[in-house]
Amino acid sequence: MSAAGESARRVQQMRAKAQEMEEAAKSATDPDERQRLQDKARRLRSQSEQESGMASGDIYPTI
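Now predict its structure.
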């Protein structure tokens, strides 16, 4: 698999995991656990956006 294909696959996996975390947060009854899951989902989405941007040639990561 090419480097671009590998990167795209990794980005897709991060996005899928972030979606799982968001779904889990919606069903969490403990407010602290809900917040933890939401924060983790947000971090994964941010990482996937940065990796996607770098893979597409955008050398300036989002801050």
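Helices lie at 3-27, 31-55.
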